[in-house]
Amino acid sequence: MKATLRAHVLERRRQLTVDERSLYDVSLSHHLHTLLTDLARESDSLTVAAHVPIGTEPGATVDFVDDISAIADTVLLPVCPPGLPAPLLWGTYNGALRTGRFGLAEPAGETRPPTALADADVVLLPALAADVTGMRLGRGAGYYDRSLQHATGLLVVVVHSGEVVESVPFDDHDRPADMIVTADGILTAGGNSGT
To answer: Which of 130, 161, 171 lies closest to 23, judged by CA?
Structure first.
């Protein structure tokens, strides 16, 4: 079931034109900006764990990380560890990126242990789909699933419009997110719409 849903979402993403993705991403960035600005007002120092979108992922056509960095006091980005799938390492974004494992962009500079995720007030989670309860479907390697044991902040899934589905298959160890952000707005776990 997970493999079928992954294949369906990836095919749908491939069919989106660059213009369609750009329109989605601008709207998604607006909603994310609103959410993070509101949270920053309530905090003395906002730390956001983000990711660098690639390809057809939501946010890939906009300055996703730089936009977040303009609001947050600290932005943590994941560093994929060597070897078998394990909890992600983290680095502080200072405007510079390097190419890491699997060709993914990661922060240049010092790498912190998986427990650094506990410093994040907000954790932005990439996904292929999410359901209204906050469960997310990742790409299947489990890096984020292993990492979330260290998360103490607000968990926010970032997906394209149309990738919020009625139900996502999940395992007992999977942890639901608190919110989902798409180009259509913000959805809190349980199905309540935000902005």
So the answer is: 161
> For 104-128, how does the pLDDT look when each residue is reduced to its tens digit (9 = 90+)?
999 998 999 999 999 999 999 999 9
Q: Mean pLDDT for the chain? A: 93
Residue that wins the pLDDT comparison between 170 and 29 = 29
CA gap 179, 133 in Å, rounded: 9
pTM comes to: 0.93
Nearest to residue 138, comparing CAs of 154, 127, 151? 127
Query: How many CA within 13 A on the CB side of residue 163?
Result: 34
